[in-house]
Design a protein that fits this description.
Distance between the termini: 36 Å
EC number: 2.1.1.-
Oligomer: single chain
Protein name: Class I SAM-dependent methyltransferase
Strand order of the largest sheet: 3-2-1-4-5-7-6
Number of domains: 1
Strand content: 15-25%
Keywords: Methyltransferase, Transferase
CATH superfamily: Vaccinia Virus protein VP39
GO molecular function, one term: methyltransferase activity
CATH class: Alpha Beta
Organism: Kineothrix sedimenti
Length: 263
């Protein structure tokens, strides 16, 4: 795998480590994969605080996805930049058509741990090359998960992806985490992805910038570190985590945006 693909081991380790503690997220598949893969993380990438952050982020995406599945019972799910994430198992919606999408080398690795079925499919694709969208079911509703991927795409590539989704589906509900421009610049000096060799990331300051067509709307910002999840930490950990990873300071670096896209 190249450096960008290797970043998948950071959230995998976070979810596995926190799942073992029995807090925030239950992810036995992450524990299994991490134990077998044995990839070496260095420096900030294996920080206790980052593991909590990765687990909370995943839990927020999980809860959001569950709510959208309830609201839109016919929608298919596109998990773009899935890495080794086991959200399809954590949410357990076997009746839904679900695509886990990532680079060919990542999908090849996933197939050691996940099996396709009638509704669950793994798709090899580069998110920056939107041609893969044309092969999906046309005219359906889609729930799109973009966790930990926007920073490796340019704003132009994200805009093109939004337009392609708009052309393909009748309605799209999309959740995407992203760096701010300041966060992207700061990441060159202090970022756990540097510890696996990834250097180039992008940032977004104005979520409304992707509203280039009628029907593409930024709807709201979500909290990546809800207080009820922070409360699962010890008292000391809660204090430090709130100071460093939650609130106004954290939002200067990292945000979570929801979009609705209609034809």
């Amino acid at each position: 795998m190249d450096a960008v693909n290797k970043t998948l081991y950071i959230p995998l380790f976070g979810k596995a480590a926190v799942s073992q503690k029995g807090i925030i997220i239950k992810d036995p598949k992450a524990e299994e994969i991490w134990k077998k893969e044995g990839f070496t993380l260095r420096g900030k990438a294996k920080s206790r605080w980052l593991t909590y952050y990765m687990a909370m982020r995943a839990r927020v995406f999980d809860e959001w996805t569950k709510k959208q599945l309830q609201r839109y019972p016919e929608a298919i799910v596109l998990h773009i930049g899935c890495g080794m994430d086991s959200r399809v198992e954590r949410i357990n919606a076997p009746e839904r058509i679900w695509y886990d999408i990532d680079y060919p080398s990542v999908i090849q690795e996933r197939k050691h741990y996940f099996e396709e079925s009638g509704n669950y499919r793994m798709l090899s694709a580069d998110a920056s090359d939107i041609k893969w969208i044309n092969g999906l079911e046309n005219g359906k509703e889609a729930i799109v998960i973009m966790e930990g991927i926007s920073m490796y795409l340019t704003n132009g590539e994200i805009g093109s992806l939004f337009l392609a989704l708009q052309n393909q589906f009748t309605r799209v509900l999309l959740l995407m985490d992203c760096y701010t421009v300041f966060g992207a610049k700061a990441s060159r000096f202090k970022n756990p992805v540097n510890d696996v060799g990834a250097k180039i990331v992008s940032g977004i300051d104005h979520p409304e910038a992707f509203e280039q067509n009628e029907g593409i709307h930024f709807t709201r910002e979500l909290d990546m570190t809800p207080s009820e999840l922070i409360d699962e930490l010890s008292t000391f950990e809660q204090t430090f985590f709130k100071l460093m990873f939650a609130g106004k300071t954290a939002k200067k670096i990292y945000r979570l945006y929801e979009y609705k896209i209609n034809k």
